[in-house]
Design a protein that fits this description.
Layout lengths: L1 H20 L4 H13 L5 H15 L4 E3 H6 L1 H5 L6 H8 L6 H9 L4 E3 L11 E5 L4 E5 H19 L6 H11 L5 H10 L4 H10 L3 E6 L5 H15 L8 E5 L2 H22 L5 H7 L4 E2 H5 L20 E4 L7 H10 L5 E6 L12 H5 L10 H11 L12 H4 L1 E4 L7 H12 L5 E2 L6 E2 L2 H5 L14 E2 L6 E2 L6 E5 L5 H9 L8 H8 L9 H22 L2 E5 L8 H14 L14 E4 L13 E6 L7 E7 L2 E6 L6 E3 L2 E3 H4 L4 E7 L10 H8 L2 E9 L4 H7 L13
Parallel strand pairs: 2-3, 5-9, 5-10, 6-7, 6-8, 8-9, 15-24, 16-22, 16-23, 23-24
Antiparallel strand pairs: 1-4, 3-4, 11-12, 13-14, 17-18, 17-21, 18-19, 19-20
Helix pairs in contact: 1-2, 1-3, 2-3, 8-16, 9-12, 9-18, 11-12, 11-18, 12-13, 20-27, 22-25, 23-24, 27-28
Length: 710
């Protein structure tokens, strides 16, 4: 026993030393120490597993695959080169096979082992999977996973009655067929109107998932679904609809997109339906936190299974950003008979916190696993032919639709996004009839009117504060040799034919209306001031610098300082302390009492009254809101922001800044998400040649046991 106790202590000392080196967090080694307190007889392998489980949870994983950890520890951990000797030394003392790690954990009184049917006594850890493929969970994440799996399967399988004749008539109105010849050719090709199919499927179930890349029409489809529900409802005037998204910006964009689509649809339907009444009845789109009723200082929400949301339909956008715990809370709060419609891009970055719920839900979205019954229902309800699957699909598979055709991008940005998402780095020759498959670097090197050539390096001008940018393409890659000065150049001047930059909002900033000095002038100037604020915010949102990391010369912190210094040097900004006119800010913490939420971006501006206090202004679609800067404690300057924080936004000219080192942070999903924030022009900065390719080759696979029964 003494030898085992010594091994436990030496193992714990090693874990604490790794925390001191920064390879683990202090929280991770503390978790192992807590586990040892709970079970003084714990084996060394169990302590290591617990510390690494905590570490991986901090990186977004729901559980730890012990088989992967045992056989490829560096692949799982991604630690720096200097950590390798220490890792190998400890691994030499650990069991070499998964069953031995399984036994070490299963024998602990602090672990609930599912396979043995051990009693749930509130153990802090749960051991699932098999002896060969064990999965280790922190207890609460296992509970969330079970809740989500059960709720999704039950809701997706809950069938709502559908008048298929009525539904078919309305779907044909909402998605009118193409010209006869075009419609014939479409059906000959086997093309499916997936937007129409998505509406038909959502009509019959308590849960539906609509996924697709930017511009594939997810909110366009959701708006038509609302019209379909209104048309087929027995009490259309009582239909209660909610709209939500993870961030305030994404929620505002969802409402704006839904409103525009419904307005356009109203014009085409005429007196057949009163969609404007529906629009007026709907509350504004809000964050998921606000929808559920976030309780300050608590993980609990006002709305839950005992106090469900008062809604018939809830549409949630940007679902890829929703982590496992939040999805569990959302599903628990949905009323029994309500419809939940989840929209999102399964290929975007997963949530910052643990889980990749949308990705887990959409694992079969591309190939589809539609049953005979689903195919028959779709054909009768909307006239589209789906291919039956030979594999047995779950209830969720029957309710998942992937939209495939993007209408947002020009060929350059869209083709690059597709190549990155598919993992195509270089051009590859395929079968003769298929020609060349364009890779990311091949697209960037074409040198056509849309894509800039990367063959010429950036040339420094005589004025070292300027960098000559010779290309005018929709997509531009600045590759090594390149310095951070190129970022400042983009911020100040844009580039040829991609002129959106921070000069846009600064011009509006300096065109402020004359402030009021009397009460009468104040009343008269309030509306002109509001219109000016909107112009400033809209101009600011035309351009954004997106960084992959926080730290280093290519991180958002250094880039923010660099851009601000450059704007001050040009006399475009005049900082006076922390708060100053024109400072762009991003909220970093939810402040429900102030009406601001994590990720909200605004600009600090004066009020319409002379010598009035500065306020931070935010724009949600066309609605302004503002907060006194004296009340904002959790904000940071936002000339540059991380790609993670940019989700749910889009900008006319987007600059994606890669760091000078790769690592497990720089992934395909990160690059894809950055690229797809660009609406018209995209600039990518690659400080080291080949860095973009390294990122494309590294795909995130978060450990998860989430599955949905057939």
């Amino acid at each position: 026993m003494k030898i085992v106790h010594h091994n436990m202590n030496s193992t714990l000392e090693t874990l604490h030393a790794w925390s001191e080196q920064g390879w683990l967090r202090r929280l991770d080694s503390a978790a192992a120490a807590f586990f040892l307190d709970q079970d003084p007889q714990a084996q060394p392998a169990a302590l290591v597993a617990v510390a690494i489980l905590a570490h991986m949870e901090g990186r977004g994983h729901v559980c730890l695959s012990l088989a992967d950890l045992i056989h490829e520890p560096q692949s799982v951990l991604g630690w720096p080169q200097q950590a390798q000797p220490a890792l190998r030394a400890l691994w030499a003392t650990m069991p070499s096979e998964a069953p031995h790690w399984y036994e070490a954990l299963a024998g602990s009184q602090a672990v609930r082992t599912l396979a043995t049917g051990s009693v749930d006594a509130g153990q802090p850890l749960v051991l699932g999977g098999s002896t060969d493929q064990p999965l280790l969970y922190l207890r609460r994440y296992w509970v969330y996973e079970q809740q989500v799996s059960l709720a999704v399967s039950q809701r997706a399988g809950a069938q709502h009655p559908v008048d298929q004749t009525l539904a078919r008539a309305w779907l044909d109105r909402l998605f009118p067929p193409l010209h006869q010849q075009q419609e014939h050719e479409r059906r000959q090709r086997g093309d499916v109107q997936w937007q129409k199919v998505a509406c038909a499927l959502a009509l019959r179930s308590g849960l539906s998932v609509i996924t697709g890349g930017p511009g594939t029409g997810k909110t366009y489809t959701a708006a038509r679904l609302l019209a379909l529900l209104l048309a087929t409802s027995q009490n259309p005037s009582q239909l209660r609809v909610g709209l939500a998204a993870p961030t305030g910006k994404a929620a505002a964009r969802l409402r704006q997109s839904i409103d525009l689509s419904l307005d356009s649809l109203q014009a085409s339907l005429g007196d057949l339906m009163d969609l404007r009444a529906l629009t007026e009845r709907m509350d504004k789109a809000i964050t998921v936190h606000a929808l559920l009723g976030m309780q300050m200082g608590s993980r609990q929400f006002k709305h839950n299974a005992k106090n469900p949301l008062d809604l018939d339909v809830l549409i949630v956008d940007e679902t890829s950003m929703i982590h496992l715990e939040m999805m569990s809370a959302l599903l628990q709060a949905m009323p029994a008979g309500g419809r939940l419609v989840l929209l999102g891009d399964k290929d975007q970055l997963a949530s910052v916190e643990a889980g990749s719920v949308l990705g887990d839900m959409c694992v079969h979205a591309h190939t589809t696993r539609y049953s005979v019954q689903t195919c028959s229902y779709v054909q009768e309800t909307c006239g589209e032919r789906l291919s039956e699957s030979s594999a047995e699909g779950s209830a969720l598979d029957q309710q998942t639709v992937m939209l495939r055709q993007s209408h947002r991008f020009g060929s350059a940005i869209g083709a690059l996004a597709q190549a990155v998402n598919a993992g195509w780095i270089r051009d590859e020759h395929q079968a003769p009839q298929d020609g060349v498959r364009p890779g990311a670097y091949g697209l960037l090197a074409q040198g056509n009117r849309e894509v800039a050539s990367v063959q010429e390096p950036l040339q420094g001008a005589e004025d070292e504060s300027r960098v000559v940018l010779p290309h005018a393409g929709k997509v531009y890659l600045a590759t090594a040799p390149v310095s951070p000065a190129v970022v400042t150049e983009f911020a100040l001047h844009g580039r040829p034919l991609a002129r959106a930059c921070y000069a846009d909002y600064l011009r509006e900033l300096h065109a402020a209306p004359v402030p009021a000095t009397t009460p009468e002038q104040a009343r008269e100037s309030e509306e002109p001031h509001a219109q000016w604020v909107k112009r400033v915010l809209q101009a600011f949102d035309r351009f954004r610098i997106l960084c992959a990391v926080h730290d280093g010369v290519w991180g958002d912190r250094a880039i923010n300082e660099q851009v601000q210094r450059a704007l001050v040097a040009k006399g475009l900004l005049k900082p006076e302390g922390e708060w100053f006119k024109g400072r762009p800010i991003m909220v970093t913490r939810n402040e429900k009492s102030l009406g601001v939420f994590n990720g909200d971006v605004g600009v600090v501006l004066p009020t319409h009254i002379k010598d009035g206090a500065l306020r931070a202004y935010f724009l949600d679609a066309d609605q302004l809101r503002s907060v006194s800067v004296s009340r904002l404690a959790n904000v940071e300057t936002a000339f540059a922001m991380t790609i993670h924080k940019s989700q749910g936004s889009e900008f006319a000219h987007t600059v994606v800044v890669l760091p000078d080192v790769g690592g497990d942070i720089l992934t395909r999903e990160l690059v894809y998400t950055g690229i797809t924030r660009a609406k018209e022009h995209l600039s990518i900065i690659e400080p080291r040649t080949g860095l973009l390719g390294e990122a494309i080759s590294l795909q995130v696979r978060r450990a998860s046991g989430l599955s949905f029964s057939s």
